[in-house]
Amino acid sequence: MRAIITGATGGLGRNLTHYLRELGWDILAMGRNHTIGYTLGVPFVVVELSNRSAVLNAFEKADVVFHCAAFSSPWGDYDLFYRANVLATRYVLEAMQYYHIPKIIHVSTPSIYFDFNDQFNVKEKDVAKKFVNHYAATKYAAEHEVLMCDRESVIIRPRGIFGEHDHVLLPRLEKIGQKGFLPLIKNKEPFVDITYVLNVVHALHLAATQSLPAKSIFNITNGEPKTIREIYTLIAQELSWKITYKEISYPLLMGIGSFLECAAKWHLTAEPLITRYGVGLISHHQTLDISHAQIVLGYQPIYTIHEGITRYGIWKNHTF
User: Fold this and answer.
1) Per-residue pLDDT reduced to its tens digit, 60-87
2) End-to-end distance of the chain based on CA atoms, in angstroms?
3) Residue 9: how many CA atoms within 13 Å on its side-chain side?
4) Which residues, in sequence order, are CB contacts of 65 under 8 Å at separation 6+?
5) Which among 26, 72, 76, 91 would be 20 to 30 A from 102, CA to CA?
6) Which secondary-structure segment (H or E) carries 218?
7) Does residue 119 contact residue 167 with C-beta atoms inside 8 Å?
8) What is the DSSP letter of 41?
9) Is the Cβ–Cβ distance between 110 and 159 less than 8 Å?
10) What is the pLDDT of residues 105-117, one digit of tens each?
C-alpha cells in the first residue's frame, strides 16, 4: 500500500508513520517540522498545507491519504484555525483529485460534541448546536469538506489522545501540576474517555484497509471511562509525578479561566494555562459510544489506559 500522511511530525502522525513503516507500507510523510521529519525513516516533505500550490506540488500518486494535520490548540485566532483546518483540508482533497488518490482517512475531534453539559454515550450524530471554540468549529467545517468530496472517505473522532510523542495532553497536565496542584471540581467526579495513541493508529489502519459504507464516521476511545481523579492518579503513580490535588468550585475555576483568557486576548499574557474549555473538560461527564466503530469498523482497543500510560512513561524516560 502507498500512503501519504499529513501531520506526520505530530504525535499521532509520528506513531502512524512508524506503525505503517513496520508493516512495509510505502509512505510519503508531510509536516512542518523538518527536524522531526527527517528522523521518520521514510521520504519526508516539508509543506505548509494552507498553501494550495505547495500542496499540489508536494503530493504524489497513492492509495490512501491519512489527514492527521491540524491546528489543535485550545487558544488562538480564528484565522489560524481556519487556514490550518479548513483550507488545508480543502487543498489536500484537491490534490487527491488531481493525482487520482481514491481514499482519505480524516482525523477529526469529539470537541464538536462538547456543550458544557454532562454527556454520556455520545453518538456520532450528537453534534453540538453551538461550538465551544474555534478549533471545534473549524474541525467540523473540515469534516464538511471531506463529506462533500467525491473521494472514498472515513472520518474518525478520537478523544483525548495520549502516548508516545504526546506534546499536548500529558505534558499540559504536567505543566499545570508543576505550578503546585492539579485541580478537581468540588463535589463532582466526572467520568471521561481518553485514548492511547496506538489504539487510534489501529483504528486508522482498519479504516484504510476495510471496505466500509460511504462517508463513514467513527468515535474512537479506549472504551474504559474513568473519573478525572482516577486518570490523574494513574498518571502520577506511573510517571512518579510529585503533585497534589486541590478541589475548587466550578464557578471559581471557570472565573479563573475567563480571567486568563481575557488577559491573553488583550496580549497581557501568552496562551492561557487554564481556559474555560479546559475547565469544562474536567467538570462535566463526557463518554463516547464506540459501538459503531466496534460493529462496522471491527475496532477493539488493543492497549488499556494503564498499559498506555506505562508505555508512555518508558518512552519518556528513554527519550529524556
Assistant:
1) 999 999 999 999 876 778 999 999 999 9
2) 34
3) 17
4) 3, 4, 5, 6, 92, 96, 101, 103, 104, 105
5) 72
6) strand 216-220
7) no
8) S
9) yes
10) 999 999 999 999 9
Range of the domain at 142: 2-319
Q: 58 near 32, Cβ under 8 Å?
A: no
Whole-angstrom distance, CA of residue 265 vs CA of residue 39: 37
Give the span between the Cα atoms of 210 and 68, in whole angstroms: 19
For residue 311, the domain's CATH number is: 3.40.50.720
Backbone angles phi and psi of 82, in degrees to 5: -65, -45
- Measured distance CA(299)–CA(277) in Å, rounded: 29
pTM of the entire predicted model: 0.93
Supply 195's cell numbers: 485514548
Question: With bands split at pLDDT 50, 70 and 90, how would you rate the model's confidence at 267?
Answer: low
Residue 158 DSSP class: E
Q: Which residue has the cell 473522532?
A: 157
CA atoms within 13 A on the CB side of 25: 24
Task: Cite the DSSP H helix spans in the chain.
Answer: 11-22, 34-37, 52-58, 78-81, 88-98, 134-148, 169-177, 197-209, 228-239, 250-265, 276-283, 291-292, 305-319
Nearest Cα neighbor of 218 from 227, 205, 237, 230 is 205
Task: Count up the domains in the chain and report the number.
Answer: 1
Name which residue leads in pLDDT, 253 or 243. 253
SS3 content of the chain, % helix, strand, coil (to 5): 45, 20, 35
Q: How far apart are CA 290 and CA 292, in angstroms?
A: 5
